[in-house]
Structures are given as C-alpha cells and as structure tokens.
Amino acid sequence: MQGGSRERLLEAAGETFAEKGFHRASLREICTRAGMNVAMVKYHFGDKMGLYREVLHATFDAAAKARIQRTLVACPRQRLYDFIHDQLLRVRGGRRPPWYNRLMARELASPSPALDELVARGILPVSRELRGIVMDLLGEGATDREITLHSLSVVGQSLHHHHARAIIERLYPDLTYTQRDIAALAEHIVRFSLDALDAARKRITERAHGAQDNVAERGVLHSGRDVAHPSDAS
C-alpha cells in the first residue's frame, strides 16, 4: 500500500468498513491493514467516526474540482453533458475505489450520523449544480417541483447503470463500459434528456402565455364594466 499515512489509513479504512460496517470494524484492524499505529488515526482524524466521515467524503471531494470547472461553461447543454459524463466516469469508469460501492450500500441500508454530513457536504452541491442546469434548460416559469422532478429523471438514468449493475450485467452481458462507451452513453442520456426538457419547456411557455392571455382578458372585461353606456345617462 503506497502513499502518505493519511491516504494509507483512508484506503485501509475503506476496505475494512466496506467488509464489516462501521460498528464491527475496529481501529486496530484498520491500522494493522495500513501498517500503522492507532495514534495516527487520532492525529489525522480524531477518532473512528472522523475517519469514517472522511472515507465517505473522499470521492465527492475529488469530484469538487470538476464541478468548479463546469461552472465556467456558459452553454447549459454542454454543462449537462459534462455533468453526466463525469458522473458516469465516477460510478462506472473506475474513478472510485473498488470498495466504495459496498461501503455506500451499507451506509444507505443502515444510515449512520455521518450520512447527513455527507449529503450536506458532498451530495447537495451536486444536486444544486444539476438543478441550475435544468432550470436554465426549462426556462422561466418552471416551478420548483418541475425542476426537482426533471433533475431526478436526468440523474436517475446514469445512476441506474450504477445501482442495477449486477442485473444489467446479467441481462446485457455484451454491454461494456470502456472510456469510449461511457462517452457515448453520456451523449445518449443527454440527447434523451434534452428531448424531454425541450418538450417541457414548450409546455411551460404555453402555460405562461395562456396565463397572460387570461389576465389580459379579465382586464378587458373589467374595464368594460367600468365604462358607462350612453343609454345610462338618459
């Protein structure tokens, strides 16, 4: 196991937590695997929970740099592709350690106090980024619920290739995830999503125009009632 003491502890802890879960994993076992003593855990992370939190955050912190770069792109369609492509690389492109999926499966099945912090620190910024992209693509007039539902529909397509991995491998054994395959899959998801978002944008625009027409019509009717008819003066 290579790297500095902090990195070695994170890797050993990830493997151990994934195998045994937070409660059954011991610091002594983690440190033995890392070839270090328990004092180094206290030095770098404070305690076992501090170490566990950092293990959960590791891949999200690494993705933060890519997220910052995407904010510099003006075109929302390009930002959507970059977002989906980066996500697919993380969940199917080997950017995450092999133990990470098992660790997250344990965490989601039996949430620890660290999950709330993971959502706030790692997942919420990603969610806000996608919502911003979807908001730009839907245009003005989209409700908060519409933005949320469309965002979940977009991200669900790439996450399905992650969470249903074992089933997909059995249903479609010839489906591969090389770098080229992932780029093509990202393009497919983006085209599929843009068709739906463009259709939704059209409906939202028509709804807004219909509301404006109704307001204008009510205004005309109201002004008509206020105008005195010539026969009223006789």
List keywords for this structure.
10 helices; Arc Repressor Mutant, subunit A; mainly alpha; Tetracycline Repressor, domain 2; DNA-binding transcription factor activity
Describe this entry's structure for a reader.
InterPro entries: Homeodomain-like_sf, HTH-type_TetR-like_transc_reg, HTH_TetR, Tet_transcr_reg_TetR-rel_C_sf, Tscrpt_reg_YbiH_C. One of its GO terms (molecular function) is DNA-binding transcription factor activity. Pfam families: CecR_C, TetR_N. Keywords: DNA-binding. The protein has 234 residues and is mainly α. It folds into two domains: 46 residues, Homeodomain-like (Arc Repressor Mutant, subunit A); 156 residues, Tetracycline Repressor, domain 2 (Orthogonal Bundle). Helix content is 79%, strand content 0%. The protein contains ten helices and no strands. Helix 1 runs antiparallel to helix 2, helix 1 crosses helix 4 and helix 4 packs antiparallel against helix 5. The chain is elongated. The termini are far apart.
In angstroms, what is the radius of gyration? 26 Å
Query: For the residues shown, what is the average pLDDT?
Result: 87
Named at the architecture level, the CATH assignment of the largest domain is Orthogonal Bundle
Tally of distinct domains: 2
The profile of the biggest β sheet is:
none
Query: Which structural category do the helix and sheet elements fall into?
Result: mainly alpha
Shape field:
elongated
What is the CATH topology classification name of the largest domain?
A: Tetracycline Repressor, domain 2
Could you name the ranges where pLDDT drops below 50 across 5 or more consecutive residues?
Answer: none
Reading off the top of the CATH hierarchy, the class of the largest domain is best stated as Mainly Alpha
Distance between the termini: 102 Å
Number of helices: 10
Strand content: under 5%
Tell me the total number of β-strands: 0
**Helix-strand string:** HHHHHHHHHH
CATH level-4 homologous superfamily of the largest domain: Tetracycline Repressor, domain 2
